[in-house]
Structure formats: structure tokens, C-alpha cells
């Protein structure tokens, strides 16, 4: 117990340091935008930039709080029945609106009833996976989403047209604020949170590089009603 408590304290300190680092960039942009707005008077573009950066910081703080709760409490979120197809349709409709310069191709069954899950946790996890794929796909690129039924689970695959990830980092991209040496800015909290949310509903998630380029996320969600 003492060792676990010590590790939790160490993890929380590291998380706080990482968050402080992540928040410096939007805070600096906001300060610059405010200074320019004061010099130039009313400027709609600067105000939009400030609003976007404030939204980024709000999401970062909310994700960090949710991640800490999942890691510390380790809840089992398996008390709801939902239709995966309906959930995906809603998430992809929002994604198409938010990313009008990307294309989303979906192959979904007419219905995919999943018992013993959580609409909120699974929905946020899938949204983060889809958002990550869209962020790493260039404009005019395609993100492909497919859902099929296995013997005892639903398999959800989300494939992007981004640069992929070096093989040695495929598991580490699920760590909070991960950055591969020499690579573009990291993955923030989105995939770390998605991993823990999927685990909380009894599922699993893994990443793999596609032969033709790009990264694929595969989620396996158990169909049985027994709690993990």
C-alpha cells in the first residue's frame, strides 16, 4: 500500500508538471493576442483565437481530471446498454462538421447493441480516437471507420492517412503527453484517456501502422453482459 501510494504521488507530480508545460503555450498565445487586441482595438480574428485557446485549456483540464479519477478509482463502467451504430453516427456527424476539409468513410451495421457498457465513457473514448485520426490526416485526406462483430466482441477500427508512428512508440502513444524524440507535438491526453475509458467498459485498444501508410486504432468491445 505504501509503495502504491508513493507511486500515485509521484505520478500526480509528473502529471502536474506535464500539464503546466502544456498550458504555457496557449497561455502565451492568449497574452499575445490580448496585447495585439489592445493595440489594434476590436479585432474579431484575435478574439476567435483567444476563444479557441481557452477552449483547448478547458478541455485539457477536464481530461486531466477525468484521467485522474479513472486511474485512482479504477471504476468498472458497465451498467448501460447502447447501440454502437447510433453512437458512432452521432460522433461522426459532429466530426464531419468540425473537420469539413477531411473525408470520413464509415462502414457500419444497421444496429450494434452493446450491453454492459457506458455511453459517456465509450462515447468520449471513440471521439478522442476519431479526433486523433483527423488531426493527423492532411486536408482532403480520408479517415476510415469500420465496425464489425466478432465471436464475442465488436471490433471498431479507425484508420487515418497520417505519417504513422515508429514501431517502438506504438504503445507509448497511450501515455499522457507522449512525445516521440524528433517527432511532431505529441498526443496530449486524448489517447491516454481513451485507453483507460475503454478498459473501464471491459474492452481493449491497440495501435498499428498500416502497410500503405497511416495509423489504425482497433477497439475490441466485449458483447457479454458480465462485468469485468
Account of the 3D structure:
It contains five helices and seven strands, in the order H-H-E-H-E-E-H-E-E-H-E-E. With 228 residues, the chain is of the alpha+beta class. The strands form two sheets. The chain has a five-stranded mixed sheet with strand order 2-4-5-7-6, covered by helices on one side. Helix 4 packs antiparallel against helix 5. It is globular. The two termini are 23 Å apart. The mean pLDDT is 80.
Summarize the entry for a quick read.
The protein has helices at about 1-40, 45-75, 85-100, 120-135, 190-200; strands spanning about 80-85, 105, 115, 140-150, 155-160, 205-210, 215-220. With about 230 residues, it is α+β, with helices and mostly antiparallel strands. Strands 2-4-5-7-6 form a 5-stranded mixed beta sheet, with helices on one face. Strands 1-3 form a two-stranded antiparallel ribbon.
Keywords:
228 residues; alpha+beta; Helix Hairpins; 19% strand; globular
How far apart are the termini?
Answer: 23 Å
CATH class of the largest domain: Alpha Beta
Q: What is the molecular shape?
A: globular
Order of helices and strands: HHEHEEHEEHEE
Strand order of the largest sheet: 2-4-5-7-6
> What would you report as the Rg, rounded to the nearest angstrom?
19 Å
Number of strands: 7
User: How many domain modules?
Assistant: 2
Return the CATH topology of the largest domain: Heat Shock Protein 90
Report mean pLDDT, rounded to a whole number.
80
State the helicity in percent bands: 40-55%
Biggest beta sheet attributes: 5 strands, mixed
Structural class: alpha+beta
| Name of the CATH superfamily of the largest domain | Histidine kinase-like ATPase, C-terminal domain
Count the DSSP helices.
5
The parts where pLDDT drops under 50 for at least 5 residues are none
Q: Which CATH architecture of the largest domain? A: 2-Layer Sandwich
Strand content: 15-25%
Amino acid at each position: 500500500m505504501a509503495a502504491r501510494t508513493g507511486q500515485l504521488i509521484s505520478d500526480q507530480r509528473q502529471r502536474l508538471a506535464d500539464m503546466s508545460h502544456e498550458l504555457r503555450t496557449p497561455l502565451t498565445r492568449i497574452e499575445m493576442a490580448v496585447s495585439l487586441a489592445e493595440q489594434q482595438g476590436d479585432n474579431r480574428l484575435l478574439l476567435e483565437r483567444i476563444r479557441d485557446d481557452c477552449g483547448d485549456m478547458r478541455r485539457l483540464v477536464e481530461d486531466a481530471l477525468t484521467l485522474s479519477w479513472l486511474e485512482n478509482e479504477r471504476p468498472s463502467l458497465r451498467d448501460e446498454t447502447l447501440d454502437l451504430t447510433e453512437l458512432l453516427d452521432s460522433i461522426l456527424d459532429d466530426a464531419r462538421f468540425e473537420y469539413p476539409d477531411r473525408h470520413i468513410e464509415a462502414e457500419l451495421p444497421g444496429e450494434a447493441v452493446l450491453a454492459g457498457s457506458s455511453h459517456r465513457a465509450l462515447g468520449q473514448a471513440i471521439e478522442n480516437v476519431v479526433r486523433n485520426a483527423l488531426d493527423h490526416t492532411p486536408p482532403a485526406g480520408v479517415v476510415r471507420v469500420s465496425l464489425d462483430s466478432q465471436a464475442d466482441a465488436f471490433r471498431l477500427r479507425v484508420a487515418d492517412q497520417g505519417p504513422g508512428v515508429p514501431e517502438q512508440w506504438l504503445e507509448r502513444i497511450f501515455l499522457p503527453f507522449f512525445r516521440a524524440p524528433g517527432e511532431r507535438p505529441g498526443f496530449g491526453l486524448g489517447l491516454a484517456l481513451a485507453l483507460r475509458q475503454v478498459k473501464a467498459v471491459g474492452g481493449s485498444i491497440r495501435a498499428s501502422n498500416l502497410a500503405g501508410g497511416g495509423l489504425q486504432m482497433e477497439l475490441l468491445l466485449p458483447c457479454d453482459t458480465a462485468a469485468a
